[in-house]
Amino acid sequence: MNERWLNAAVVAGLVAFPLWALWMDEPFLITLATRAVILALAGVGLNIALGLGGLVSLGHAAFFGIGGYAMGILASHAQAYAPIMEWPFLIEGTKSMPVIWIVAMLAAALAALAIGALSLRTSGVYFIMITLAFGQMLYYFAISWPAYGGEDGLSIYVRNGFPGLNTLAPAPFYGLCLTVLLIALAAHWQIARSPFGLALNAARQSPARVETVGIAPFRLRLVAFTVSGAITGLAGALFADLNRFVSPVMFSWQTSGEIMVFVILGGVARLFGPVVGAVVFITLEHWLGGLSDYWHIYLGALLLGVVLFARGGLIGLVAGRGGHE
Amino acid sequence: MSLLLLAEQALNGLQFGVMLFLMAAGLTLVFGVMGLINLAHGSLYMLGAFVAAVVAGATGSFLLALVAALAAAAGAGALVEMLVIRRLYDRDHLDQVLATFALILIFSEGTRWAFGSFPLYLDIPPWLSGPVMLPGGILYPAYRLSLIGVGLAVALALYLLISRTRLGVRIRAGAADREMIAALGVDISRLYTVVFALGAGLAGLAGALVGAIQSVQVGMGEPVLILAFVVIVIGGIGSIKGALIGAILVGLTDTLGRLLLPLAFQTVMDSSAAASAGAAVASMSIYILMAAVLIWRPSGLFGARG
Amino acid sequence: MSDPVLNVVGISKRFGALEASRDVTLDLRAGEIHALIGPNGAGKSTLIQQIAGWLTPDAGQIMLNGDDITGLSAAQRARAGLGRTFQVSALAMQDTVLQNALLGALGAAGRLSLWGSAMARGEIRTRAEAALDRVGLGGAADMRVADLSHGQRRQLEVAIALTLRPRAFVMDEPMAGLGGQGSRELTALLDGLRGEAPILLVEHDMDAVFALADRISVLVYGRIIATGTVDEVRANDEVRRAYLGDAA
């Protein structure tokens, strides 16, 4: 099967799914699908660093969590009618999704810029360890900073609003998240075909080559890492909105690992890899989780099987070679 | 703040550091010799703690529990190496990360299935339960003091193993050039299994030793694993000496940071705000240390450059 | 005599007890091919690495068109006009030939926008395609580099350097691993390039060196023992001793 047709089928399935769930009278499934779509978005973010840039970041929970807390902090101040700060200028909370998204993306981008500037000084296994460590740093910071709930996290009473949309109902919120996901996929596609993407892709394969044509790989990677962090941050804000809750768990190393699993399960550097991966992951979680409390064992075994025997991920199994190994 | 408190906390930091060293030494050895990043190292730490708790509960002997923990972790390490890990040596780091992440899932859920979600407890043996009086009038728990002793003894033993024994020669040669030592007739796959089991045994020992001062539960390994990564980044990959110095630096920074930073903040703000700000910054202190080392020496204090 | 395009002045580099470069001075003049030869281990690669910006010399200066480039990174030197090729091909193996050439043209233009397509028709693409045509790879533009022959990869290395429109080429053993036919083709190609920019050529293939070089420098134990025309170097006693031993 051609990868392009597979991608089209995935989009069609995602668009049709809520209609089917409504027809089956299972609105809970829409919430589950929303979760998959948001996690896919987090994976699309990581895929820009990992798939295009070859940057094995095991710390993307940092950006996911920052996005989540951007939502939590803005919305909790808005619902308490307490400004975030009054001096030197007034900053108030907000319940408006577009504003929250912009703040989440900016905050995550800034964090990615700082973490990237430090960790991209190294490469290979150092980079993996350092990104993991910075993620853990924010996890402990979130736990020990009492102003926003510490270990218990933060709840908000009602989901934030989007102009002209009833975000409280499952289907419109799903549609909103799906739209954001498709925009992010378009952004990935555009970056991959752009001159920047060509250079980033080459820097993954041969950094020396890129340098000899006058391009510093560090800067390419830093830009990719920052964009990647921003998208994962946006996913974090949506995820928090879905649950109306943020907690340090969003920063945990397991979250980083899972985001990476979405990307790999689907197929690294495949445009739709994270989407397929997240959908499969959520389906397994729902299905295996219903069969056994210990479903992570099966997930682990499946993942091990994919890594050892199905390089190229699930899309690779269906659509054959492509992307990169 | 009294000098005694500071000295006691410094000892706690040292104790924390040498336990981190036991974790980091195995990781850095496995990376140095086989070029493998192993996220499941924390699972072996957890396994050691669980085995120790169960054996101590059944037999009442703490020493037996330690031996069992070490043996079980080393055995599990050897088994995992032969079944899974050896397929990963030729793969890129991404595959290694994912496969060992999968192993964490399997180990953690398997342990939860076998022992349940409630923590187990491992008691400090009675002969080490009291405090001892150290020079300078410091009253310090005998158990923690012996952890420092065990950790330093292991460091010495590792040093001797690597510098003085035939196995050590092979380990060093394997890190330098694996094709060459295979060509010289060394059974490289057995060497790798032994090195991996050695690292696993050290992790299991650390888990068992620390298990007596913390609760033994699923998920206890990974936070320690990540700290061990910080240690390796600071010390330099593949360097046992770097692992020891990095581990002690991290242990001291973390423990003393938690003590001193809130006090430092008190000089500029009121005490409750200082306590929370100090605690929050202290929770990040070792990562700030890591960032500083990265700016100064991107390949760690004792790492080969490049 | 025209001013040298590339000037290496008194370069020294030491690794522990090994003196890899000892007070090396050489120049590359407009229109010439200057070959750097020497036995294995003479320090040719170390010297090239220092000229291209991958190693920092302990002492000495490197000038390109009169500007001191000693402190610049490899990328900055490329932008300043140094086009190099590698001994072991460094190419984006999974990309196409055209994509590799485009990388050079994009790098030279300094435009790495996130918008548009890297493959878009325009000045950059024209430049990349012209470079491919120049080295005889015009017909292979859509092939993956991984599927190219060894000789074609060498040609692609040269094509990428060409897209930079450099002031000077530095080529590290371009003939290595080529058969007789491939080596003759590449020799013809390089012969025609000297008009565009002079070439500092490190090469083991003596047929190619004698066919191409206007001047030759001989590096032995990190030191240049002779520089001159092919005949001068052939007749040089010190060179004969270094290559043939004391019996010469």
What labels describe this entry?
heterotrimer; B: 306 residues; mainly alpha; two-stranded antiparallel ribbon; 12 helices; 3% strand; globular; C: 248 residues; alpha/beta; Rossmann fold; 2 domains; 6-stranded mixed sheet; 9 helices; 10 strands
Structural summary, described in words:
The complex is a heterotrimer of chains A (325), B (306) and C (248). Chain A contains 13 helices and two strands. The mean pLDDT of chain A is 92. Chain A is mostly helical and 325 residues long. By secondary structure, chain B is an all-alpha fold. Chain B has one domain. A two-stranded antiparallel sheet of chain B has the order 1-2. The radius of gyration of chain B is 20 Å and the shape is globular. Chain C has 248 residues and is of the alpha/beta class. In chain C, a hairpin with a 2-residue loop joins β1 and β2. Chain C is globular. Chains in contact: A-B, A-C. At the A-B interface, α5, α10 and α12 of A face α4, α9, α11 and α12 of B.
What's the short story on this structure?
The complex is a heterotrimer of chains A (325), B (306) and C (248). Chain A has 325 residues and is an all-alpha fold.
Tally the helices of chain A: 13
How many domains would you count in the coordinates of chain A?
1
- N-to-C SSE string of chain B, H for helix and E for strand: HHHHEEHHHHHHHH
Global outline of chain B: globular
Termini gap of chain A? 19 Å
In total, the number of domains of chain B comes to: 1
Low-confidence stretches of chain B: none
The parts of chain A where pLDDT drops under 50 for at least 5 residues are none
- What strand line-up does the widest sheet of chain A have? 1-2
Structural topology:
The complex is a heterotrimer of chains A (325), B (306) and C (248).
Chain A: H1 3-23, H2 27-52, H3 61-80, H4 97-119, H5 124-144, E1 154-155, H6 170-193, H7 195-205, H8 207-212, H9 217-243, E2 245-246, H10 253-266, H11 273-291, H12 295-309, H13 313-319
Antiparallel strand pairs in A: 1-2
Chain B: H1 3-34, H2 41-59, H3 62-83, H4 93-115, E1 131-134, E2 138-141, H5 142-164, H6 166-176, H7 178-183, H8 188-211, H9 221-235, H10 240-266, H11 271-283, H12 285-296
Antiparallel strand pairs in B: 1-2
Chain C: E1 4-15, E2 18-29, E3 33-37, H1 44-52, E4 59-64, E5 67-68, H2 74-80, E6 82-85, H3 97-109, H4 123-135, H5 150-163, E7 168-172, H6 180-193, E8 199-202, H7 206-212, E9 215-220, E10 223-228, H8 230-235, H9 237-244
Parallel strand pairs in C: 3-8, 3-9, 6-7, 7-8
Antiparallel strand pairs in C: 1-2, 1-4, 4-5, 9-10
Helix pairs in contact in C: 3-4, 3-5, 4-5
